[in-house]
Specification:
By secondary structure, the chain is an alpha/beta fold. The chain has 13 helices and 21 strands. The relative contact order is 0.09. This is Coenzyme A biosynthesis bifunctional protein CoaBC.
Length: 399
């Protein structure tokens, strides 16, 4: 299965370069086609001929050297890559990639690729923990670059701490995991709602909730990776939308979200309602800012449309998935929502649990189906929860 896969490994300068030799060898043994790009600094530690022998492909190191093929090399390698790996990745190259700098063959090729990029940092502890480096790493993570975190231990400089290149086995397994992403949702179209809604009081003030959109965006990203055509309807968030969406619809209010979902419902087989929609909105909107006074302010609220409830009435044979974020009586409240809203299943989480709910990268969920069967899951990253949800949807699609 891996013989048709191509991995491009970008090797940066550092004492850990020798481990990249082992990584190339290990990948070649699986049948993967491996290409190596070296920075000038990397060639001071290991000769390009070593990687050329191990990969059985010529090594690219100089932006302006005579080309070995008729292709524009950095574009050719960028297109060939199924996974692009930086190992070891220095603070310098991480900083360049995070800030859009493409001044050598390696950074230029990364800039041109649409493949998954996996970064394995290796550097001195103080460099790794430097706020600037950590900011650059977080920037790349927010843009969906993958990382293999460095290990702690004795470094080549003699220091003890974080920054040691992860083991070859760890990096290898991460690459294989990216290469073997399931495409089991090809031909499936779905709407995913995410984030909060905003209900305006006046031009300055509004009612909203604590949702950050992380769960919905994680589902959208994973669904795209698995081959689905995804329409993401999102309230205001600080998250960069995943690449290759069919549609991205930015909304504010619950009414906006209801209309967007309804307009796109017919062309989709699955609707995942992971957004935290405001239950109430101000009965009256003030065109001018409401001025502060010595009296208390009363704001009358109207009920917003229950989007999942309305969709449940007209869904026909579509799959409708709901969410229940509760602080008490989790199972009872979630089961009631399944019946009331005609859901196929519901994803329930207890907001009082550490590591669950809004604003964190993990979640702890229970998935409950129409028959009341409960599947409990431990604390997982939201992307892992997304795969669990999509696995359940895939089972329903196959019925």
């Amino acid at each position: 299965m891996l013989k048709d896969k191509t991995v491009v490994i970008g090797v940066c300068g550092g004492i850990a370069v020798y481990k990249a030799c082992d990584l190339v060898s290990k990948l070649k043994k699986t049948g993967v086609n491996v290409h190596v790009i070296m920075t000038k600094s990397a060639t001071e530690f290991v000769a390009p001929l070593t990687f050329q022998t191990l990969s059985q492909n010529y090594v690219v190191e100089d932006m302006f050297e005579s080309p070995k093929t008729w292709d524009v090399e950095h574009i050719s390698l960028a297109k060939k890559a199924d996974v692009f790996v930086l190992a070891p990745a220095t603070a310098n190259v991480i900083g360049k990639v995070a800030n859009g700098i493409a001044d050598d063959m390696l950074t230029t090729t990364i800039m041109a690729t649409k493949a998954k990029v996996l970064i394995a940092p290796a550097m001195n502890t103080n460099m790794y923990e430097n706020p600037v480096v950590q900011r650059n790493i977080q920037t790349l993570k927010d843009l969906d670059y993958k990382f293999v975190e460095p290990e702690s231990g004795r470094l080549a400089c003699g220091d003890i701490g974080s920054g040691k290149l992860a083991s070859v086995d760890t990096i290898f397994n991460s690459i294989i995991e990216l290469l073997e992403i399931k495409k089991d949702l090809e031909g499936t179209s779905m709407i995913i709602t995410a984030g909060p809604t905003v209900e305006s009081i006046d031009p300055v003030r509004y009612i909203t909730n604590r949702s950050t959109g992380k769960m919905g965006y994680s589902i959208a990203k994973k669904a795209i990776e698995r081959g689905a055509d995804v329409t993401l309807v999102s309230g205001p968030t600080n998250i960069v939308p995943p690449q290759n969406l069919k549609k991205f619809i930015q909304i504010e209010s619950a009414e906006d979200m209801y209309n967007a979902v309804l307009e796109n419902m017919d062309e989709n087989q699955v609707i995942i309602k992971s957004a935290a929609v405001a239950d109430y909105r101000p009965k009256e909107y003030s065109d001018n800012k409401i001025k502060k006074s010595d009296d208390d302010l009363s704001i009358r609220l109207d009920r917003t449309k229950d989007i999942a409830l309305e969709l449940g009435k007209i869904k026909n044979n579509k799959i409708l998935v709901g969410f229940a974020a509760e602080t008490n009586d989790l199972l009872e409240n979630a089961k009631n929502k399944i019946q009331k809203k005609n859901l196929d299943f519901i994803v329930a989480n207890d907001l009082t649990q550490d590591g669950a709910g809004f604003g964190v990268d993990t979640n702890i969920v229970k998935i409950i189906d129409r028959e009341g069967v409960v599947q409990e899951h431990p604390k997982m990253k939201k992307e892992e929860v997304a795969d669990v949800i999509l696995d359940k949807i895939k089972t329903l699609l196959n019925k």
